[in-house]
Amino acid sequence: MYDVIIIGGGPAGLTAGLYTSRARLKSLLIEKGFTGGQVMTTEWIENYPGFEEGIGGAELSRKMETQAVKFGLEIVQGSVIEIAVVGGIRKVTLEDGTRYDTKSIILATGSNPRPLKIEGEDEYRGRGVSYCATCDGAFFKDETLAVIGGGDSAVEEGLFLTKFAKTVYIVHRRDSLRAAKVVQERAFANPKIKFVWDSVPEKIEGNESGVTTLHIKNVKTGEQSRLDVGGIFIYVGYNPNIEFLKGLVELNENNYIVADENMSSSVPGIFVAGDVRAKPLKQIATAVGDGAVAAVAAEKYIEEKF
Ligand code: NAP
User: Fold this and answer.
1) CA 98 / ligand 1 centre spacing (Å)
2) Nearest partner of 287 among 27, 33, 61, judged by Cα
C-alpha cells in the first residue's frame, strides 16, 4: 500500500514526488513515457528561476528526477487505464494489468499536442509533420519550414528551428501573436522568420520523401495560396490527458480538471497538479508550485483519514 501515487512525471509530478518523499510518505510515480513531460521536448528554457543563462529542457528534467529519487521517490513506467475508489482505498490499474493500492493520488498527467485535423496531417506525421522541434528539428537542415500557431510554443520553437532551416514561416490565424513580448521581439528581429498573418492551414501534400506543400487560406480575404515547405511543425495548443479518468473527477468545459486552492479535485484524496489542472497560467514555475501544494495537501489528508 502506497501513501501517494503520482500519475505523470513532468515538473508537477516530480515536484510532488520530491515533497511527498521528503515527508517520508511511501511514494510511487507512474510515467507512461519519459520523465520530464513537455519540458523534456523543449530545447531551451529561460524563464525558470535560478538558471540565469537558461537551461536545456532535458537537463532540467534530469535534475528534477534525480533530486526526487534521492529522497526516495520510486518511479515506474506504465500507462494507467483506471482508477477506482473502494472504501478509503484508491486502486490504480495499469495497461499491463499491474494494480497498486494507495491512500491518495496526485494527477499530474499534463497535456498532449493538439492536432490540426487537416487533410494530410496524419499521412505525413513523422514524414515532415512534427509536434516537436527539439526532437525533429535537426532533420531539416537548410529546408524551408512552416510553424503553425502564434503562442509561446510556436514562436519559441520557430526561433529554435532557424538554427537548422533556411526559412521558417510562422503561419498564424490572426495578425498579432499570443507569445510573450520578449519572444516576439526576437522573432521579429530574426531574418530567417517570415510571418504569414491571418492564415489557416487547409491541406498538407507531399510525395514519397515527405512533405512538399502546405495549402493555406487567408481568413480575411478568403484567398488560397501554397507554401513550398519540407516540414511543418504544429503548435496550436494542447489537450489535457484525462481519458483514463472516465468521468471520475469534475472537469471544466475544456476538459481540464477542476481543483480548489489545495489542489484537491472533486473526489477526496485525489489531488491535481500541473497542466492538466484548470488554471490561467501553464508554466514550469506554476507546475512545480501545484506539485508542492498537492503533496502537502495529500500529506494532511492521509494524517486526517488514516
Ligand atoms: P497556446 O498558448 O494555446 O497557443 C496556441 C496557438 O495556436 C494560438 O496562437 C492559437 O491562435 C493557435 N491556434 C489554436 N488552434 C488553432 C487552429 N485550429 N488553427 C490555427 N491556429 C490555431 O499554446 P502553446 O503556445 O502551446 O502554449 C501552451 C501553454 O504553455 C501556454 O500557457 C503558454 O504560455 C505555455 N508555454 C510557455 C512557454 C514559456 O513560458 N517559455 C513556452 C511554451 C508554452 P490564437 O492566438 O488566435 O488563439
Assistant:
1) 36
2) 61
pTM of the model: 0.89
Residue nearest to ligand 1 atom 33, measured at CA: 152
20-75: pLDDT as tens digits:
999 999 999 999 999 999 999 888 999 999 999 999 999 999 999 999 999 999 99
CA angle 23, 28, 34 (to 5 degrees): 120
CA of 118 to the centre of ligand 1 (A): 18
Q: Are strands 80-86 and 89-94 parallel, antiparallel or unpaired?
A: antiparallel
Domains of the chain: residue spans and CATH: 2-113+238-305 (3.50.50.60), 129-234 (3.50.50.60)
Strands (E), 177-282: 193-196, 199-207, 210-218, 224-228, 231-234, 238-240, 270-272
Contact present, 145 and 161 (Cβ < 8 Å): yes
Task: Record the cell numbers describing residue 14, joined without a space.
Answer: 516530480
- Beta pairing, strands 55-56 & 144-148: unpaired
Which residues contact ligand 1 via a Cβ below 6 A? 47, 116, 148-154, 156, 173-174, 178, 200, 235-238, 282-283
